[in-house]
From TrEMBL, chain A:
Annotated source species: Hoyosella subflava (strain DSM 45089 / JCM 17490 / NBRC 109087 / DQS3-9A1)
InterPro entries reported in the protein's UniProt record: ChsH2_C (IPR002878), ChsH2_Znr (IPR022002), NA-bd_OB-fold (IPR012340), Thioester_dehydratase-like (IPR052513)
The protein's name in its UniProt record: DUF35 domain-containing protein
Cited Pfam families: OB_ChsH2_C (PF01796), zf-ChsH2 (PF12172)
PANTHER family in UniProt: BLR3430 PROTEIN
Automatic annotation (TrEMBL), chain B:
Entry superkingdom: Bacteria
Record PANTHER family: ACETYL-COA C-ACETYLTRANSFERASE, ACETYL-COA C-ACYLTRANSFERASE
InterPro entries: Thiolase (IPR002155), Thiolase-like (IPR016039)
Source taxonomy: Bacteria, Bacillati, Actinomycetota, Actinomycetes, Mycobacteriales
Single GO MF descriptor: acyltransferase activity, transferring groups other than amino-acyl groups
Protein name, as recorded: Uncharacterized protein
SUPFAM superfamilies named among the record's database cross-references: Thiolase-like (SSF53901)
From TrEMBL, chain C:
Origin superkingdom: Bacteria
Source species: Hoyosella subflava (strain DSM 45089 / JCM 17490 / NBRC 109087 / DQS3-9A1)
Pfam families cross-referenced by the UniProt entry: Thiolase_C_1
GO molecular function terms attached to this record: acyltransferase activity, transferring groups other than amino-acyl groups
Protein name: Possible lipid carrier protein or keto acyl-CoA thiolase
Limits of the Thiolase C-terminal domain: 241-380
InterPro entries, A to Z: Thiolase, Thiolase-like, Thiolase_C_2
PANTHER family (UniProt xref): ACETYL-COA C-ACETYLTRANSFERASE, NON-SPECIFIC LIPID-TRANSFER PROTEIN-LIKE 2
Length: 166, 355, 388
């Protein structure tokens, strides 16, 4: 007969504290610096003509260095989306909110971003959207310089407040 | 075994801290060089294998970034080890044995400089309940092993300094080395300790680099390289995790891996001209040479990890350095060794040969 | 090259929040069970492959080092594989490759996650300046794909609820399953909270601790036990780049290529006819029709009809996830291997209460990343080439 074992230890805090340096790299730095200047910078592969946003330094299909950077207006179409409907710790926005894949016009990549200024249940695949930038004083080399995307504002019938429908 | 050979090796210089390039930018030029050495395009590659580790990058799924850099479109056959890329090499070599393809590309990316303080990171490699909470200094367990060897009379501080002296001198001809130079033993022995009995130069300098190896089978290998470096034997073995349970003055896992690799190869460590050992610390050279039974070989002609240690690429670089010397005719037979874990817990041995 | 490969031992731990055991003890449960099933000693094993999702999830770096003892791996070659959520499938295939290559006679493949230790959400949301901080979470990735599937296929919304109920009812026949909801109803799923529209709470997988282990051998080195082996008829893995415009995430090319290769290896020309049961990596209910179509078990646009017609329910012509699947337990590092192992249990006739009658051939499927990693195997009750 073995003696009865004690109750198992079920909690043993062992916190980590780890600091890391983030190296953006040359390709991404171009893009990040553009964001700090309210610009969306894309680059094209000289070989397969695919356009990247954000652009890395090399084409992931051809392994070729991408061509010269150029600016896009950032407008595009929602390729698909979801509505985040529940609260969880550390959440930045109050649910429900829409997270979408956006095909930015003139690119061959997809950008993921928030869709605001439209009721969540009115967001649709194929909807034309445009970026809304933070004020100049808040511009930083990060995608957070774009606060969110919203339906394109040209010739739109406005509804109550700043909410927009199409 | 199917005849499989290294036909190309490329590496980026081991930088103490590369703040210029992201993972893709570090890796891609090396992949391009590795492929262009053989004159093939990426679409000829039948299988990709890679090694890296999230804890060095500080985020999850960092491997996917390296994969996006390599590109996987159209879809590819591919695998990844969250280990030193020498183990990815082992996987690729295994895959080549299946006969489902003739060319594999193995890459390793190691960026040791991103963690602001590796003492915050390396304890997480240990038993999370008994050892990690003690938060040993990253070199502490190596210091224990070195002290055990000194105590047993199996190495001396002077011998350790002589190893460092030779490696750093050899590294002066290695453009990828992070550290090189001509030092006197007295000079080295006057340096302060970092973890007694280890001095700064007894610890391989951590850095950032990528390495790429192209493997090819049979006649394909002969077409792609004038003198392929045939992989004749490969094996790896792990030991118990607990340093307190092990005899730290021997490396039984390196010993058994070498024995098994020799059975496959038909020749042994004692028969090689060169040996590249994954010596993260100077004292490990004597320990490994004994366990592997390396006799007259030139050990670490590249300077070895004491001249540059790009974490998870370090072991793959050892295989590449041996293969390169066979490819260009400077050596006929060689041994490459890779390790991981505290005090040489896990060891890999690869025996290569020219025709 | 060895021609015939067999799974001769399978073990798993109970999936749950397992705070009463260490990581090592959790892994050992599965390893011990697999070895007992194979009737082998550790001395009979000559290589170990370990599957695990990101180390940051539970904070142990290179867990093969700490787990060497618990896995019985001391003195053996150990490889730790990581390819996203598909890793368990990759590990099983690498283990089988070691046997096929003649480098090992018997390989132990081990997989685990202990997600109750550490902080999963933290590990998945390390801020990087080139991605916007959206707080989308795991479902935030899959929900848009599901929305696109529904748009393309015109599937009615109850399909997702029905899958959720089917899998939960299957789970009560599996003593290892984490989620046990014997009286779940479609109405309950439908009224559960919306998480990531269109995904509801009860259409989502849990976060679990759990481990799985299998033993793979060649025919020649197979232990003779009363329990028959599962024969490996085909296996394949494929990877594709995750994010580019025009990439079809609903029906990813890598998954189609992987399926085509695994059926070619297995000599299967009509998967829907030749596969009797499938264990698919379904973390959200709608992924049942999505993967049925991607793996060729259903025609494009028809996957949801199989659900609607009860053909994939337990007792149907092609039961999907009789174990309860990922919706009933998701220890991510082990989830892929569990799918492979459950497929093998079925063809061995060892699946207990969730055994599908006449399961001669089964598909095990694992996927990971942004549906960019795919691994599959087909296992059978008869040796490859013999009358199936």
């Amino acid at each position: 007969m073995t003696a009865r074992l004690p109750e198992p230890v079920s909690l043993m805090p062992s916190p980590f504290h780890m600091e890391y340096t983030y190296v953006a790299g040359e390709g991404r730095s171009l893009f990040l610096r553009g964001l700090a200047a309210r610009k969306l910078v894309a680059r094209q592969c000289p070989s397969c003509a695919k356009t990247y946003l954000p652009p890395p330094e090399f084409c992931s299909s051809c392994l070729r260095r991408l061509g010269a950077p150029y600016e896009l207006d950032g407008r595009g179409q929602i390729s698909t989306f979801c509505i985040v409907s529940f609260p969880f710790p550390g959440q930045t926005y109050e649910p429900p909110y829409v997270v979408a894949h956006i095909n930015v016009r003139g690119t061959g990549t997809r950008l993921m971003h928030l869709i605001r200024e439209v009721p969540a249940n009115e967001v649709q695949i194929g909807m034309e959207v445009e970026p809304v930038w933070v004020p100049d004083s808040e511009l930083v080399p990060s995608l957070t310089s774009i606060r969110y995307y919203r339906p394109v504002t040209a010739a739109r019938p406005a509804t109550e407040g700043s909410e927009v429908t199409r | 075994m199917r005849d499989v050979a290294v036909v190309s090796f490329a590496q980026s210089p081991c930088l103490r801290a590369n703040r210029q390039d992201d993972m893709a930018e570090t890796l891609l030029p090396v992949i391009q060089e590795g492929l262009s050495n053989t004159g093939i395009d990426r679409d000829r590659v039948d299988f990709f294998a890679s090694g890296s580790h999230d804890f060095f990058e500080g985020r999850t799924f960092s491997y996917i970034e390296s994969l996006d850099a390599v590109g996987a479109w159209p879809p590819v056959s591919e695998s990844h080890v969250e280990m030193d890329a020498a183990w990815a090499f082992a996987e690729a070599w295994t895959w080549m044995q299946l006969g489902e393809g003739d060319i594999s590309l193995v890459y390793g990316i190691g960026r040791g400089s991103l963690a602001a303080d590796l003492d915050q990171v390396m304890p997480s490699q240990l038993d999370p309940y008994f050892l990690t909470p003690l938060r040993p200094h990253r070199d502490a367990l190596a210091g224990l092993q070195a002290a055990a060897l000194l105590d047993a009379g199996l190495v001396t501080e002077r011998a350790m300094a002589e190893t460092v002296q030779r490696c750093l001198a050899d590294a002066t001809t290695n453009t990828a080395a992070a550290k090189a130079g001509h030092y006197s033993v007295e000079e080295l022995m006057a340096a302060p300790y970092v973890a007694t009995p280890l001095r700064t130069h007894d610890v391989g300098p951590i850095g950032d680099a990528a390495a790429v190896i192209v493997l090819a089978a049979g006649d394909t290998a002969r077409q792609l390289a004038d003198r392929p470096a045939w992989v004749r034997g490969l094996d790896h073995r792990i030991e118990t995790h607990y340093p307190g349970v092990r005899n730290l003055t021997d490396s039984v896992s390196a010993r058994s891996a070498a024995r098994r690799a020799a059975e496959l190869a038909g020749f042994a460590a004692m028969d090689v001209d060169i040996a590249e050992l994954h010596t993260e610390y100077s004292y490990q050279e004597a320990l490994l040479a004994t366990a592997l039974n390396v006799k007259d070989a030139h050990i670490n002609p590249s300077g070895g990890p004491l001249a540059g240690r790009p974490v998870t690429a370090t072991g793959l670089v050892r295989i590449g350095e041996v293969a390169q010397r066979i490819l260009d005719g400077r050596a006929d037979r060689g041994l490459a060794h890779a390790t991981n874990g505290p005090a040489l817990q896990h060891n890999l041995v690869c025996l290569l040969e020219g025709e | 090259m060895t021609s015939n490969l067999a799974v001769v031992g399978i073990g798993q731990s109970k999936q749950a929040k397992r705070r009463e055991v260490t990581i090592g003890a959790l892994v050992r449960e599965a390893v011990t069970a697999a070895m007992a099933d194979a009737e082998l000693e550790f001395a009979d094993i000559d290589a170990v492959v370990l599957s695990k999702t990101p180390d940051l999830f539970d904070g142990v770096m290179n867990p093969e080092l700490y787990l060497a003892d618990a896995m019985g791996a001391v003195g053996l070659p150990v490889t730790r594989v990581f390819t996203g959520g598909s890793v368990g499938g990759h590990a099983a295939i690498y283990g089988a490759h070691l046997v096929a290559a003649g480098l090992a006679k018997r390989v132990l493949v081990v997989a685990y996650s202990k997600e109750s230790e550490g902080n999963f959400t933290w590990a998945l949301s390390r801020p990087l300046p080139f991605s916007a901080q959206l707080g989308a979470g795991a479902g935030g990735h899959f929900a848009p794909v599901i929305r696109e599937y529904i748009r393309r296929s015109d599937a009615p919304e109850h399909i997702g609820w029905k899958v959720a109920v089917n899998h939960r009812l299957n789970g009560i026949r599996n003593p290892y399953a984490h989620v046990q909801r014997p009286d779940i109803t479609v109405e309950e799923v439908r009224s559960s909270p919306m998480l990531w529209d269109p995904i509801r709470y009860l259409e989502s997988c849990p976060s679990s601790d759990g481990a799985c282990a299998i033993v793979v051998t060649s025919d020649e080195d197979r232990p003779q036990t009363a329990r028959p082996p599962a024969w490996i008829h085909g296996m394949a893995w494929r990877t594709e780049t995750g994010h580019f415009a025009g990439r079809d995430e609903v029906n990813p090319q890598a998954g189609r290529d992987c399926a085509a290769e695994v059926y070619r290896h297995a000599g299967i020309t009509e998967p829907a006819r030749d596969i009797r049961v499938a264990e698919l990596y379904i973390p959200y209910s709608w992924y049942e029709p999505i993967w049925l179509e991607n793996t060729g078990l259903a025609a494009i646009g028809e996957g949801w009809r199989m659900v609607d017609d009860d053909r994939t329910a337990f007792g149907g012509e092609l039961p999907v996830n009789p174990s309860g699947g990922v919706l009933c337990g998701n220890p991510t590092g082990a989830t892929g291997l569990l799918r492979f192992a459950e497929a093998a249990l079925q063809v061995r006739g060892q699946a207990g209460e969730h055994q599908v009658d006449g399961a001669r051939r089964a598909l095990g499927h694992a996927m990971g990343g942004a549906s960019q990693f795919h691994a599959m195997w087909v296992v059978g009750a008869a040796k490859p080439g013999e009358t199936q």
